[in-house]
Amino acid sequence: MIEPDLSLQKPLEDYVEYIEKMNIRSLPLLETMSGPLFSLQDPYHSVNGVGDAQKLLARRFEIYPFGRYRVHDFAWGRRSATAYIYWSFFYKVEKRKLLGQKTSEAYDFSGVSEVVFAPDGKILSHCEFWGGHDAFDVKAYQKPLEH
Fold first, then answer.
1. Contacts of residue 17, Cβ cutoff 8 Å, sequence gap at least 6
2. Which residues constitute the domain of residue 33?
3. pTM reported for the whole predicted model
4. pLDDT of the residue at 123
5. Which domain CATH number covers 14?
6. Is 18 within a domain?
7. What is the pLDDT at residue 135?
8. Is the residue at 85 inside a domain?
9. Burial per residue of 107-117, b for 16 or more beta-carbon CB atoms within 10 angstroms, e otherwise
10. Whole-number Å distance between alpha carbons of 140 and 144
11. Average pLDDT, stretch 16-30?
């Protein structure tokens, strides 16, 4: 049987709450939860450092300003200090119709994040695995980050 490090339960629950409330204004809070070697990876990017992670997440919220996460579940993995978070990202895509009218369509995609914690409860890494995301504007999102 696998015994999770229960001293990391509160940092995990705090991070889950952060993900669900995340928006462009809350990105600075990531600094308080992450270690100095923090890395963030998704299907299109791999960045190191909290600053670059904040830039990447800011781009996501700039492309989809009303994007929101909903965490469905989370659990500890077999490896010590590794947790998995199952989530969906909900967002709208605005489209222009004739005569300048705008309409928006709601979309979502689901994913799982593997999150690794340091013994002090700081997050070392966050790696996202996404499901189908056809309407997500990959071209705008996958551009390299400018430093």
1. none
2. 6-141
3. 0.87
4. 98
5. 3.10.450.50
6. yes
7. 62
8. yes
9. bbbebbbbbbb
10. 10
11. 97
